[in-house]
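dumping this here before i forget
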Amino acid sequence: MPDISQDIRKAAGEVASVARDAGYVVIGAAVLGFQRAQVERQELKKRVAAPRAGFEQRISGVRADLGDTVQATEARLQELADRLESLIEAVEAIVAPFEDRLPEQARGIAQQAHAQAREARTQLRTLLPGAA
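structure:
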């Protein structure tokens, strides 16, 4: 009987050894799978970040272009407002000497026109961002 008990112990030892080796293989495979998942996650993160960076650069470019366009438009509007102001002043300077010679009714209309021109200038100045 000692042979059977020895055989059983030997077989149990071999089974335990195989079970231990199988456990190590399962744990190793799980570790490798987890590491592979981490690598895939990092690669996916890089692939997602690359287009986003390009998109942000394009948006920044569009914002800069839009800002330049707005500034150029404001400058052009200011230039046009200055020209209009000069034109109004020139017309008033030409018409002013004749205003005293006008009949009473016409003089009242001319004064109303001057008042409306002043109001229009005031409104124009409030609409322009650089004018104050």
